[in-house]
Amino acid sequence: MPARNSNNEYGWVAIGLHWLMAPAIIGLFFLGWWMRSLTYYDAWYREGPALHKSIGLLLLALLLVRLLWKLLNRSPAAEPGTPRWQALAARLTHGGLYLLLLVIMTSGYLISTADGRSIEVFGWFGVPATIHGLPHQEDIAGQVHKILAWSLMAVVVLHGLAALKHHFIDRDATLRKMLGRGAG
């Protein structure tokens, strides 16, 4: 399998980025949801958020690589017979996923750096607080983060259902392309 995408299939780079990011995104959502139930006396009260922030920042780096890769590569064409509205909906959904991820990650950064402290990434390096001290920064960014995280999960479910629809109802190669099995 080639690294680059072709008109008929995704290359291993796009497939690898997709399947590396998908479980991380879903996992971060559930980690964030679980963290909200922790109290000061829970063992994970500090470790959960530290893990969430570290994975989130690494995911941001992967997202930027993925967006760059997308700019440098064509996307495979829609399957023959796909209605134009479905192809457009797929492009808009993918764009929406990327936009939601960027805004969610930015709001997470604004929550974490509101007090001016940097974010430590697994103790390997720190990401400095470049924007901090804005009025109600943590609260506003927190609401944005929460609402868009739930919105992202709705779009992720829609994305997954559309892939399953293509595979089981339309019986086309849409899902097989992202599994690395191509049109064959």
Structural class: mainly alpha
Count of individual helical segments:
5
Give the overall pLDDT as a whole number. Answer: 95
Helix content: 55-70%
The largest beta-sheet arranges its strands as 1-2
Q: Encode the helix/strand succession as letters.
A: HHHEEHH
What's the CATH architecture?
Up-down Bundle
Report the biggest beta sheet as strand number plus sense, adding barrel if it closes.
2 strands, antiparallel
Number of strands: 2
Write the topology of this structure.
Layout: H1 12-35, H2 47-72, H3 84-112, E1 119-121, E2 125-127, H4 137-170, H5 174-178
Give a description of the structure.
The structure is a single chain. The chain has about 180 residues and is mostly helical. The protein has a single domain (about 10-180), classed as Fumarate Reductase Cytochrome B subunit (Up-down Bundle). About 65% of the residues lie in helices and about 5% in strands. It is built from 5 helices and 2 strands, in the order H-H-H-E-E-H-H. It has helices spanning about 10-35, 45-70, 85-110, 135-170, 175-180; strands at about 120, 125. Strand 1 (about 120) and strand 2 (about 125) form a beta hairpin. Helix 1 (about 10-35) packs antiparallel against helix 2 (about 45-70) and helix 3 (about 85-110) packs antiparallel against helix 4.
